[in-house]
């Protein structure tokens, strides 16, 4: 029976870690029609209604009412055929009703790419030993990997070198900087643009194939780094480099958007990091032009209405912005309190409405696979800058897309990142 | 060292502190002529007189409030509340009075009083005389809460509590009064805020309070027969909590069972469990297990009461499940 | 008459009552301007109770009062500025801004202290008296409490023990006729609550609570008894709460004719009249002007005093070894 996920990726609340399931409009086994309200979730303190994207039957509910679900999680599924009665009881109910029955399942096979269930100690030991948890069989309740399983796996590894640790390890894609992840594969560093924060990649990360481990950092003056602004692109590169070193990251694939694209190039030029590949989305630093009104408006907006109008400039089609995006973004700015830092950085990075840094040389000097992606409808940095790409770089010009492909076309963005990363073998 | 019963150890501590400091006085129901329902104050009225050892009317609310201000004005009251089940009557004095003044009066007053009480089940005393309401008092910032499980700690901690400059709720257990143990002679105090390692082990840590320490020790014997080496940590100071001792033990065993005779929901075991998560998450090889009273009134009839109370066998089962 | 205050004592009582009245009126005005924080419980019209009762105490004696305790703070000898600064949450307040106007304490002056749990001041004073008896200090504890507090269970418990143990405590019942909005006759079957004193084997006297001299006479007699070790006593002072429960009170439940009648017997007028034959007008006028000036000065200083800074430091840790 084919089933299709009900997910909240497209439901807004970009700046939230999790959403709260408020109410299911159907119960498992009920028929649903495309466009029917199926579940209401709370995002950024606003209720968001998720509609069925197809006709079918509600098959599973993975997060029951009142539960929190991580953004990107599959809340439930719609089946093409009517599910058998009793088959679709909520998972949480089963677990609560009989924890012992589940606990007694001693051997437990995880689906590839699923999150490994491991004790905190096992996770810590595996990370320290560079052991990929997805290759370890758990012997604890519900297949939980315990210390003894790590000990056994490490013993087996020393018996058969290379047998367990593989480069194709399926790593949980982590938004948070994860030093443990960085040790086992070359991570992909995602750098956001001016006025955003690392959560801007949230829709893209779950779409990346297993095996691509990501690290998303906040730029100085942004997100968690709101209190520490930087005055120029060199300081941004320096700060990022320091933080990567502190995490033990020595080489990485770079992905940057807008100012983050410029930061990626500056980081490559800085030279302390071994760069494996570079994927740039509407990067800065390739020409003097920039929409100064947008930058200023973004930094100054204090009302949802104002921010909404500037955000509309950012995309090719304003409908591409998830509902409540401006509200969530504004809340985020208010929470981090970085409006002042943004305004100050706008002044020094873009004096007189001009990009204050030139990275065309840095781009030209790259010796690794390089890809440039630009929306043809970009009204923040003109797509014409793509013409300054060196001959070795792949250039993609996207129809109908504005300045933020990662929001407007997350699947394509994920695909292009993956292709660049894969292209270096 | 002298072999003593728990109640005798308390009695000795009270006597020594009253001899040493004339500002120490005792009051409570039935503590004078009768010597206390559990005999902890036996003979003290004869020795120190009716002014310093007072039988009181049944007035827990006012008695506790009076202990607060008496302590602020130069004396060191030791108040006995006969059953922990009566502590709800003391709560205004603890929550709205004792816990606030040090802070809101900007350090102008000290409140060196001790509220002794006893709780816990197993004696057929029914739903209103069997509860351990530890978490209800441990919840209140500014109140110290201790619950010694051995005669030696009973004496040493009561002496320390009387000398402390802050309010201390001193929790005893009706089934501990007759337990015997070695007690150091002379003026020996046991500092508040430090856990005791009753037994070292390497496979699992059992954190227990009051009489549950006794049950945990029995559980450790049973577990030894299962081939499991259990470490027993006596959380004799419920607050302030000896977090270092907890973390050190978990760093060794990576498995934890917390045992408290109070209710489960919002209970002391829940606090312990969260504290372990805060401070030792990366040391855990399994979720923290809680052994508590179920969230129900305590019944009278023996098989009913016994079925409810945390016991050595329940602790053993929880430990084995944690080690799976 | 026995225990009648001397003229100088009466003048000092009158002066402190003036300070309290100015304090209350100024607070009312600042509240209207939105410059106060939280509810303020004014004691206008009840100044004679708090000031004259505490005038009967010595420095080493201690008093516990209510959430409406401004007259007690000033009566027991606290200076205006730390009281005003505390009401405005300043670092220089009597409690560094941590307590607010309902919970003011000054251990050195024996104000221990304001208490906003109605009834809680009664065992508080009783506990202090217990301590005094055990230590044999010769001091007396006093509780100023209202007719609302008289209905609590803890009032009975504490007074029973005070009577039983002959504790040196004086219970001053500030009968202002209201427990928040509910009049006394809806809260108690008896008008004179002090008849209950008989149940605790303690003497009681009912006085006009707006007559500072009457309050002083009755209270000082009880204080002397208590100090001699003869046990507690009660004085029921009949007065009236003219300014409502607090600044958050919408009013409408007090009869205008009652308010007018009690205002005509304002304790300040009663005290001034009692003094006018004994002290010349110029001296009274000088005292009045000085009280106004002292209040203005205290407000001016307190309102420009710094706000406290929040710091999570060792002092905030209730389990710090430093305590």
From TrEMBL, chain A:
Residues 3-79 form the Lipoyl-binding domain. PROSITE patterns: BIOTINYL_LIPOYL (PS50968), LIPOYL (PS00189), PSBD (PS51826). Signal peptide: none annotated. The keyword Acyltransferase applies. Keywords: Acyltransferase, Lipoyl, Transferase. Residues 117-154 form the Peripheral subunit-binding (PSBD) domain. InterPro entries: 2-oxoA_DH_lipoyl-BS, AB_hydrolase_1, AB_hydrolase_fold, Biotin_lipoyl, E2/Pdx1, E3-bd_dom_sf, PSBD, Single_hybrid_motif. GO terms for molecular function: dihydrolipoyllysine-residue acetyltransferase activity. Gene3D superfamilies: 2.40.50.100, alpha/beta hydrolase (3.40.50.1820), E3-binding domain (4.10.320.10). SUPFAM superfamilies: alpha/beta-Hydrolases, Peripheral subunit-binding domain of 2-oxo acid dehydrogenase complex, Single hybrid motif. It comes from the Bacteria. It is an enzyme of class 2 (transferase). Its cofactor is (R)-lipoate. It holds the Pfam family Abhydrolase_6. Its EC number is 2.3.1.12. Belongs to the 2-oxoacid dehydrogenase family. This is Acetoin dehydrogenase dihydrolipoyllysine-residue acetyltransferase subunit.
Automatic annotation (TrEMBL), chain B:
Keywords: Oxidoreductase, Thiamine pyrophosphate. It holds the Pfam family Transketolase_C. Residues 4-179 form the Transketolase-like pyrimidine-binding domain. NCBIfam families: PRK09212.1. GO terms for molecular function: oxidoreductase activity. Its cofactor is thiamine diphosphate. It comes from the Bacteria. This is Alpha-ketoacid dehydrogenase subunit beta. Its EC number is 1.2.4.-.
From TrEMBL, chain C:
Residues 15-309 form the Dehydrogenase E1 component domain. It catalyses: N(6)-[(R)-lipoyl]-L-lysyl-[protein] + pyruvate + H(+) = N(6)-[(R)-S(8)-acetyldihydrolipoyl]-L-lysyl-[protein] + CO2. This is Thiamine pyrophosphate-dependent dehydrogenase E1 component subunit alpha. Keywords: Oxidoreductase, Thiamine pyrophosphate. The keyword Oxidoreductase applies. PANTHER family: PYRUVATE DEHYDROGENASE E1 COMPONENT SUBUNIT ALPHA (PTHR11516:SF60), PYRUVATE DEHYDROGENASE E1 COMPONENT, ALPHA SUBUNIT BACTERIAL AND ORGANELLAR (PTHR11516). It comes from Mesorhizobium humile. It comes from the Bacteria. The lineage of its organism: Bacteria, Pseudomonadati, Pseudomonadota, Alphaproteobacteria, Hyphomicrobiales. Its cofactor is thiamine diphosphate. The pyruvate dehydrogenase complex catalyzes the overall conversion of pyruvate to acetyl-CoA and CO(2). It contains multiple copies of three enzymatic components: pyruvate dehydrogenase (E1), dihydrolipoamide acetyltransferase (E2) and lipoamide dehydrogenase (E3).
């Amino acid at each position: 029976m084919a089933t299709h996920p009900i997910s909240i990726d497209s439901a807004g609340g970009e700046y939230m870690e999790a959403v709260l399931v408020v109410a299911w409009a159907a119960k498992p086994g009920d028929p649903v029609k495309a466009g029917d309200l199926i579940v209401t979730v709370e995002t950024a303190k606003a209720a968001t209604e998720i509609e069925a994207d197809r006709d079918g039957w509600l098959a599973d509910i993975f997060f029951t009412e009142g539960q929190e679900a991580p953004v990107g999680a599959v809340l439930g599924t719609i089946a093409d055929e009517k599910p058998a009665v009793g088959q679709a009881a909520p998972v949480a109910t089963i677990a609560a009703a009989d924890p012992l029955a589940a606990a007694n399942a001693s051997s437990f096979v995880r689906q590839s790419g699923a999150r490994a269930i491991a004790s905190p100690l096992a996770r810590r030991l595996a990370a320290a030993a560079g052991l990929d948890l997805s290759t370890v069989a758990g012997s604890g309740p519900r297949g939980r990997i315990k210390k003894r399983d790590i000990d056994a796996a490490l013993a087996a590894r020393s018996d058969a070198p290379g047998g367990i640790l593989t480069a194709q390890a399926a790593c949980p894609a982590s938004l948070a900087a994860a030093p443990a992840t960085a040790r086992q594969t070359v991570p992909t560093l995602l750098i956001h643009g001016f006025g955003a924060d690392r959560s801007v990649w949230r829709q893209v990360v779950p779409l990346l194939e297993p095996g691509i481990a990501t690290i998303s950092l906040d730029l100085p003056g942004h997100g968690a780094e709101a209190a520490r602004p930087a005055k120029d692109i060199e300081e941004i590169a320096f700060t990022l480099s320091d933080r990567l070193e502190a995490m033990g990251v020595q080489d990485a694939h770079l992905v940057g958007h807008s100012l983050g694209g410029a930061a990626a190039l500056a980081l490559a030029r800085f030279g302390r990091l071994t760069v494996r590949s570079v994927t740039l989305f509407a990067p800065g630093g390739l020409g003097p032009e920039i929409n100064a009104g947008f930058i200023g408006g973004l930094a100054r907006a204090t009302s949802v209405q104002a921010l909404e109008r500037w955000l509309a400039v950012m995309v090719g089609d304003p409908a591409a912005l998830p509902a409540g995006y401006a509200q969530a973004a504004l809340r985020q700015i208010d929470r981090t309190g970085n409006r002042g830092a943004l305004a100050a950085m706008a002044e020094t990075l873009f004096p007189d409405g001009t990009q204050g840094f030139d990275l065309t040389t840095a781009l030209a000097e790259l010796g690794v696979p390089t890809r440039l992606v630009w929306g043809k409808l970009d009204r923040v940095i003109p797509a014409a800058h793509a013409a300054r790409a060196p001959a070795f770089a792949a250039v993609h010009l996207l129809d109908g897309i504005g300045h933020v492909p990662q929001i407007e076309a997350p699947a394509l963005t994920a695909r292009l990142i993956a292709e660049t990363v894969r292209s270096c073998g | 060292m002298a072999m003593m019963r728990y109640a005798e150890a308390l009695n000795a501590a009270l006597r020594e502190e009253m001899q040493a400091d004339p500002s120490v006085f005792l009051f409570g129901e039935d503590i004078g002529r009768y010597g206390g329902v559990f005999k902890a104050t036996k003979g003290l009225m004869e020795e120190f007189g009716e002014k310093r050892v007072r039988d009181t009317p049944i007035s827990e609310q006012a008695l506790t409030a009076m202990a607060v201000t008496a302590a602020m004005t130069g004396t060191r009251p030791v108040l006995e509340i006969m059953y922990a089940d009566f502590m709800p009557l003391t709560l205004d004095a603890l929550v709205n009075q004792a816990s606030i003044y040090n802070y809101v009066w900007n350090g102008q007053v000290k409140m060196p009083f001790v509220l002794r009480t006893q709780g816990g089940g197993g004696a057929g005393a029914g739903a209103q005389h069997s509860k351990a309401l530890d978490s209800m008092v441990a919840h209140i910032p500014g109140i110290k809460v201790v619950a010694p499980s051995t005669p030696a700690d009973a004496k040493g901690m009561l002496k320390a509590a009387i000398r402390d400059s802050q309010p201390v709720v001193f929790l005893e257990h009706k089934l501990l009064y007759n337990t015997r143990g070695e007690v150091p002679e002379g003026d020996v105090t046991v500092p508040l805020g430090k856990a005791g390692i009753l037994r070292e082990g390497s496979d699992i840590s059992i954190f227990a309070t009051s009489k549950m320490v006794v049950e945990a020790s029995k559980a450790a014997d049973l577990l030894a027969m299962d081939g499991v080496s259990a470490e027993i940590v006596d959380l004799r100071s419920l607050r302030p909590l000896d977090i270092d001792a907890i973390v050190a033990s978990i760093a060794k065993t990576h498995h934890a069972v917390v045992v408290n005779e109070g209710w489960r929901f919002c209970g002391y075991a829940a606090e312990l469990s969260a504290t372990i998560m805060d401070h030792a998450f990366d040391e855990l090889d399994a979720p923290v297990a809680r052994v508590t009273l179920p969230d129900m009134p305590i019944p009278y009839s023996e098989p009913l009461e016994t079925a409810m109370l945390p016991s050595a066998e329940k602790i053993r089962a929880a430990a084995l499940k944690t080690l799976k | 008459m026995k225990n009648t205050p001397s003229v100088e004592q009466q003048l000092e009582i009158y002066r402190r009552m003036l300070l309290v009245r100015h304090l209350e009126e100024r607070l009312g005005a600042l509240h209207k301007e939105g410059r106060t924080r939280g509810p303020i419980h004014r004691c206008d019209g009840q100044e004679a109770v708090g000031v004259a009762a505490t005038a009967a105490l010595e420095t080493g004696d201690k008093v516990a009062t209510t959430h409406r305790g401004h007259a007690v703070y000033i009566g027991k000898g606290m200076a205006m500025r730390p009281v005003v600064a505390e009401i405005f949450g300043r670092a220089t307040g009597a409690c560094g801004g941590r307590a607010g106007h309902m919970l003011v304490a000054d251990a050195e002056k024996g104000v221990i202290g304001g208490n906003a749990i109605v009834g809680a001041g009664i065992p508080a004073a009783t506990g202090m008296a217990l301590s005094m008896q055990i230590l044999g200090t010769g001091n007396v504890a006093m509780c100023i409490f209202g007719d609302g507090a008289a209905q609590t269970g803890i009032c009975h418990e504490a007074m029973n023990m005070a009577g039983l143990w002959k504790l040196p405590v004086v219970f001053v019942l500030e009968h202002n006729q209201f427990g928040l909005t509910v009049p006394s006759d809806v809260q108690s079957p008896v008008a004179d609550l002090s008849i209950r004193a008989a149940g605790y084997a303690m003497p009681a006297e009912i006085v006009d609570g707006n007559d500072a001299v009457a309050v002083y006479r009755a209270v000082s007699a009880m204080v002397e008894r208590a100090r001699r070790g003869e046990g507690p006593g009660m004085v029921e002072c009949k007065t009236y709460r003219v300014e409502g429960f607090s600044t958050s009170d919408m009013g409408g439940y007090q009869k205008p004719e009652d308010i007018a009648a009690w205002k005509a017997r304002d304790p300040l007028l009663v005290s001034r009249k009692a003094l006018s034959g004994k002290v010349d007008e110029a001296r009274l006028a000088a005292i009045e002007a000085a009280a106004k000036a002292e209040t203005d000065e205290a407000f001016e200083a307190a309102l420009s005093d710094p706000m406290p800074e929040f710091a999570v430091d060792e002092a905030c840790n209730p389990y710090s070894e430093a305590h």
